[in-house]
Write a structure and sequence with these properties.
15% strand, two-stranded antiparallel sheet, alpha/beta, Rossmann fold, DNA-binding
DNA sequence: TTTCGAATACCCACCAGAGGGTATTTTTTA
DNA sequence: TAAAAAATACCCTCTGGTGGGTATTCGAAA
């Protein structure tokens, strides 16, 4: 045990933890693997770069847990979690993401992932997460925890926009005009205008540009 | 030598290559370090997460080369290269980026970096790059090379927008109105309108939304 | 059962920006 | 040094979206 990390759960393990890594950046994948395998109680049984390969790897190796990036090219880590949970309901997941937006984090946690660690966190936090999750607990990195607690005081934050409003925002972000949106959703152009106004009010963005940036930041695009 | 990589330049080295790593994601930094130090001719003398720390580390350790991420929080890898080149003109740089947009790559190469490797490339390419750059050569990963060659056939691609136009696009993306941009740059509102039209024409985006997405895709925001 | 949020819809005034030009000066490149 | 590219500037038209309202229906919580 090389690292000076206080991980209580570690000592209870009698056999190595089998891990599947998912990240679409090959170099990071290799680095992460090296990092994890420094600890000889942990074993990376497969490291893949996309969702289909990940599903196959999980099916083949039946790992103890899956550590996945959130941004995975065409589809995302969320869809990997969703698909896997259907096929292997007891599979454990740690999401390793660069996003710390409250809204996004909450959405991911709702999918039932067991841990959430930021890429800018330390490797120690990742190890803590691995052992906690292996031991049947959940683990949020310090920063994520702080963020979640903080968001308790701003209850609106999470569900700012209604489903309908988000639908319309997505269309706006796809360069639809009000007229086109109205036709698409079989509603009046007036209604679209109203929704649009509400979206502006709620997001506190005064311009289209700000709105698009909001949509980006909240991963609606 | 554990890896089966054919690196001619490696055998000529008589002493280890001192490397400074720069990446704002702590976990990746650790992983990268492990990856590189697998090769015992390579030594990571420092690993930091932002531009000021990087400058200090370079000054202190006088490394043989610096491997830096492109996205570094507030400032970017480009500004690191620029600042460092002023202070240490002979310092060698490899940019490790997730961006493969022709426009962006060319801009980075213009700064005089010695290597460009994508995060989705293999670790072997990174090693090739390190040894090539150490040996005084330049190194572009296979994918980057292919992209550069391809862009030869589409001469417009690379320098789509002029410096001024990009300046204005950035302001547009910062929610400036035409009037505000005019005041900011000490030019007439009419001129801003003209630039704006040219930007739309060149980017082939019909709407503000498309423009903002272009700006995102080309890392102007 | 009442109240509240969400979705629907309409009206009007106003203007910033899209879209169409043309033209001059400066800088870069051939 | 001539030609091309970039930056500057002005004019006109017109529409789409912004910002200000108000109001009805409907389902869900209280």
């Amino acid at each position: 045990m090389k690292w000076l990390v206080n991980i209580a759960a570690r000592d209870k393990l009698t056999q190595t933890v089998k891990i599947v890594l998912v990240d679409d950046h090959s170099i990071l994948l290799d680095g992460l693997k090296k990092l994890i395998e420094e600890d000889d109680m942990l074993s990376v049984v497969d490291a893949v770069g996309n969702v289909p390969d990940a599903i196959r790897a999980i099916d083949k190796h039946k790992p103890d847990l899956v550590i996945t990036d959130y941004n995975l090219g065409p589809d995302d880590g969320l869809s990997l979690v969703q698909k896997s949970k259907r096929l292997f309901p007891d599979m454990k997941f740690i999401v390793l993401s660069m996003h710390d937006e409250a809204h996004l984090v909450k959405e991911i946690l709702k999918e039932g992932v067991n841990g959430y660690v930021l890429k800018k966190d330390t490797k120690e936090e990742l190890l803590e997460a691995i052992y906690a999750v292996r031991g049947g607990k959940m683990y949020m990195s310090t920063e994520i925890n702080a963020m979640l607690v903080k968001s308790l005081y701003e209850p609106e934050e999470g569900k700012l926009l209604t489903a309908r409003e988000r639908e319309i925002l997505k269309l706006i972000a796809q360069e639809y005009s009000n007229k086109m949106i109205a036709e698409e959703l079989f509603i009046s152009e007036r209604t679209v205008e109203t929704h649009r106004k509400n979206i502006f009010r709620k997001t506190k963005t005064g311009s289209l540009v700000g709105l698009i940036k909001f949509a980006y930041a909240n991963n609606l695009i």
